[in-house]
Amino acid sequence: QVQLVESGGGLVQPGGSLKLSCAASVKIDSMYAMAWYRQAPGKQRELVASITNGGKTSYGDSVKGRFTISRDNAKNTVYLQMNSLKPDDTAVYYCSAAAYIAFWGQGTQVTVSS
């Protein structure tokens, strides 16, 4: 069983930055890909960013140029650096690991508000 634990969420003002971390209980380079999703109240869960075991990254249109996903295989941790945050970025952020099935973390709340 893969366990994913997110951290780093919180309250930040518009224009600010946060860095989320996702610590995995397994070697993340054994996963096909790692990803961050988010879900705002009343909205569907959406893909924010993903990174394959080969290092290829992709981003949702709304976060391109502001968010950066990265991974540290030695620490089995994936990160999401979020800059120039907007109120629309407010959501619960989930880490996901893609293998034969998808595994999910419990989520961390990010609130962007003045």
What's the short story on this structure?
The protein contains no helices and 11 strands.
Average residue-wise pLDDT: 96
What fraction of the residues are assigned to beta strands by DSSP? over 45%
Helix content: under 10%
Helix count equals: 0
Largest sheet: 7 strands, mixed
Low-confidence stretches: none
Q: Tally of extended strands?
A: 11
Task: Give the helix/strand class.
Answer: mainly beta
Overall 3D form:
globular
Radius of gyration: 13 Å
The rounded distance between the terminal residues' Cα atoms is 40 Å
Oligomer: single chain
Compressed to H and E, one letter per element, the order equals EEEEEEEEEEE
Structural commentary:
The protein is an all-beta fold and 114 residues long. The chain has no helices and eleven strands. The N and C termini lie far apart (40 Å).
Q: What would the keywords be for this entry?
A:
114 residues; mainly beta; 4-stranded antiparallel beta sheet; globular
Q: How is this fold's topology laid out?
A:
Elements: E1 4-7, E2 10-12, E3 18-24, E4 33-39, E5 46-52, E6 57-59, E7 67-72, E8 77-82, E9 91-98, E10 102-104, E11 108-112
Parallel strand pairs: 2-11
Antiparallel strand pairs: 1-3, 3-8, 4-5, 4-9, 5-6, 7-8, 9-10, 9-11
